[in-house]
Amino acid sequence: xxxxxxxxxxxxxxxxxxxxxxxxxxxxxxxxxxxxxxxxxxxxxxxxxxxxxxxxxxxxxxxxxxxxxxxxxxxxxxxxxxxxxxxxxxxxxxxxxxxxxxxxxxxxxxxxxxxxxxxxxxxxxxxxxxxxxxxxxxxxxxxxxxxxxxxxxxxxxxxxxxxxxxxxxxxxxxxxxxxxxxxxxxxxxxxxxxxxxxxxxxxxxxxxxxxxxxxxxxxxxxxxxxxxxxxxxxxxxxxxxxxxxxxxxxxxxxxxxxxxxxxxxxxxxxxxxxxxxxxxxxxxxxxxxxxxxxxxxxxxxxxxxxxxxxxxxxxxxxxxxxxxxx
Length: 326
What we know:
12 strands; globular; 12 helices; 6-stranded parallel β-sheet; transferase activity
């Protein structure tokens, strides 16, 4: 496939599949020479070496930031008979940010099924619109048996003091519960390189904040720490869940998450779902003394389930079926 994506997706796909990494400079050479089965473009913010920074997302107040380069790539691929696929991994929060690029494509996939009617109202009937949920790459995130090194919790991700108020509510609730129960918390700060105080985690007594790590290294975090915290930013979708949640489960982690229709639909049998602070306190007070046999059985089953249904191989099969590739 020809691929335009951010690093997480690129790393996951390139480990297992033949990917030609497309940039504004090399697209004519690679598409014509290699003629991939299809072109997959995700809602990328940067792309490799910032090759697609400001070239896929829409910035109406900055006209010099536009998708003209992407238009050229899609037109060239289409002229070569290469199916063009767009995947918005940022729906529904950033639907507007990527719709001008999405509408260029023959096939649109979204992580949030709630956005399908919005796409259908904008694109023509000849354009297919379907869901494509977050998968895992089992060569990176996989279950290798239980060997917890720390009877404490981890959270891998970002924190925003200025955005996503409801997400921050769930984070604060879980973080405070780890403090009150003595479970303890280690945070891997995805935004450790950003200088703004808007991205700093709360200053709690028993929280250790570490710098960002490579995506592939997160698997070991989920295996080392007894409890892996997750927060789903989108809480009203039956298909949108965080990539982090499915990767935790793939590793056999004991996942603790806020509720959402997607969690209830796919993962309720494999993780602990919190609805309030009392539930968090009760759960963490128990887990700090170690997992029960039920905790381990649930995590084991979750890893098997994810491997059987939510890998990149499954998602690419969904794509190829819809676009008509054999």
